[in-house]
Amino acid sequence: MAKKKEPASIYEIIQGLAQAAANAYDGALTEDGDALKLGLQREEGDPILDKRVIDGFNVKFYGNMMCVGYQSELQLKEVYSKGFVTEIEQRIADIASFLKKECKKISGHAVTLTEDGEIDILVQSSSRVRSWVQAKMHYKVGGLSPDMNDDNQGSTNPVEEGWKTFLNQGGWKGKRPKNDTRPKNSGD
Question: Which of 25, 29, 51, 160 has the fewest CB atoms in 10 Å of its CB?
Fold first, then answer.
């Protein structure tokens, strides 16, 4: 009889997704020695002959959520073309799909990423021709409980002795030393 696979721990899920993101650096290769494809512009064309496109992504974790951020350099004509938002959404969806597949390879556990809200896109220009885009999409990570950071108990670590002394002396609003010659209302 086949053994049941234990569910992944929070640590394994986060570690798997973070390692999957780390494995997607520019120039990464697959096990076969081919260039890693995850849907970014930098993968298109010849890396030696063509102008390199600067783009990439990052991930951030908070509670049961993951934020995928994407940034790229582009020209203004690309921003004003039809389907620009759809193209950016597709890139982030490709990144999320890559993260799920890579996490499954790394940890052996499947993870689900569910979109939470709309994509946030910010386009800024550096000249009349060049611009860059920063986009982010939030995902709920399957297997993480929504209240994992809502214990409202704060830190259980005791205050270190140096901080206790500092706070007992009045902290930043305490008595000023004798050699402090600044006027009293100098913005302390």
Answer: 51
